[in-house]
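Notebook entry, structure prediction.
Reason for the run: the old model in the group folder had no record of what sequence produced it. Starting over properly, with the input documented here first.
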Amino acid sequence: MSRLGDLLHTERLRRKMTLKQVAKLGGVSEGYLKDVEEGKRIIADDQARRILKKMGLKEHNEAGFSLEDIAATVDVETIAPKKPAISKPAARDSETVYQSKAEETVSGGIWLDALTSVLKRVPVYNAVMKEVGHRLLPIMDGKIEGSAPDKVFYLSAPDDSMRGFRILREDQCLIVPSNSPIDGAIMLVEYNHHRCIRKVKKLDGMNVLLQSYDREYNAEAAALPEITFIGRVVRVEFTL
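New structure, fully documented this time:
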């Protein structure tokens, strides 16, 4: 299946709707919808949005996840609703509970609620701290890389000044907050009214060495009061 086909198929099953019902809502043929769900045909994003909306799925939830975000993470094997076990007549109360819970989750789409607690839409900033994109990161024990999820962000490396430390221009650096120097760490700092990524080496209690390496190694000694430490680079990602 395609990702959008997965979404359509999963949501249709969850809402206990037939192909004919959804096709009629979306203004498409039953055969076309069947091919889309089976991955035999590609459906346009706007058409998929329209059909999902007709089915009652909200495109965005309070966490700001888009249809593309959902499609990129949906797993039919884990999301598709499981049929309730056949119960004996004496277990009517438990069956009622199961049905009521299932009805409660239908209104928003089960992955929307799930994504809110396990994934975070982390912004990607450029050199002037303007948001130019986002990435989805998993939340573990309420944190991302040990920090509050709303405090981490990506910075697109503005130049090749850290080439020698394996960070090239436009590589995406994941930053976790840190307002004090960490010896040996690569950090995002503000120095001389300029934000940059530098490797930090402590010299003493009041001075550090800010290291860069483009065509050649460079190091500049600076006093701590002259530097604002913003965060530590904990991960670098690039696109092939």
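Summary: The chain has a mean pLDDT of 80.
The old model has been moved to the deprecated folder.
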